[in-house]
Amino acid sequence: MSLEQLDRWWSSLQAGWPFSLRLRPWPVALSLLFLACLATAFGVVATTHATRGQYAELQQLEQERSQLNTEWGQLLLEEGAWSTPARIEQIATQRLGMRIPDVDDVEVIRP
Fold first, then answer.
1. Number of domains the chain contains
2. What is the pTM of this model?
3. Above 70 in pLDDT, residue 63?
4. Quick one: which of 12, 80, 37, 103 has its CA closest to 72?
5. 17-59 per-position pLDDT tens digit
6. Is residue 108 part of a domain?
7. Residue range(s) defining the domain that contains residue 46
């Protein structure tokens, strides 16, 4: 298609339209503003969704931390109970048959 044919086609196309094909600045500006609002709305929805997901994950991690802190406290109490003198004496008596000597069983050796 030559340039002259393209020009004839364009002028016949303009003659057939009930309105002129001029671009006015305010419809373009309104369209761009509408697209900007649409993009902003999409961004708000996406950010809200991501925030809710992260908040749910935070709650789960805090619950796990609480459970681990409870377990740690129980382990510290158990460790304290295992090392008490009464516990050691009980194990020595039950498992090893050890006992505190009577007064008659004690011999004092002098140098």
1. 1
2. 0.49
3. yes
4. 80
5. 555 556 667 778 889 999 999 999 999 999 999 999 999 999 9
6. no
7. 26-96
- Measured CA distances, 107 to 50, 93, 98, 102, 104 (Å): 80, 22, 18, 10, 8
State the chain's mean pLDDT as an integer. Answer: 86
Classify residue 32: in a domain, yes or no: yes
Residue found under tokens 């761009």: 32
In total, the chain counts a number of residues equal to 111
63 located within any domain: yes
d(C-alpha 1, C-alpha 63), whole Å: 73
Q: DSSP assignment of the chain, as one string?
A: --HHHHHHHHHHHHHHSSS--PPPHHHHHHHHHHHHHHHHHHHHHHHHHHHHHHHHHHHHHHHHHHHHHHHHHHHHHHHHHHTSHHHHHHHHHHHH---PPPSTT------
- Residue 80 CA to residue 44 CA, distance in Å, equals 53
